[in-house]
Amino acid sequence: MSSGDNDVIRAAGCVLWRRSPYDDGLEVCLVHRPKYDDWSHPKGKLKRGEEALAAALREVEEETGFQCAPGARLPTTRYVAGGRPKRVDYWAAEATDGGFTPNREVDRVAWLSPTAARHRLTQPRDKSLVDALLSALHLA
Question: Which keywords appear in this protein's UniProt record, sorted alphabetically (predicted)?
Fold first, then answer.
């Protein structure tokens, strides 16, 4: 790790998906964060010594209430947050069990079709992750 890597905020998350209970279509879970009034994929910062995938699965459960089975690695996003570079590693993850309860960080979740999810996401960089999920699931 070069000395420049110490300044990078490390985070991880998942593009959480399930088969619709109504029509078996693909649904993507988005989280609404009242602090930022935005819609995004569940993600969060790594704890000291934590592996990225473990952090991603922990954040999904903390933010959505769902356990999930991780799948394909998705593209990493990089951007500047609060004047510092941030790197977020993502995985596709199928929701396996659980249920949402509003909390301090996330007040709502939405299970949406890929097209609706693309439209609802606040950040353009998050929209491409929906396409990456479809590609990983061989649905693109």
Answer: Hydrolase
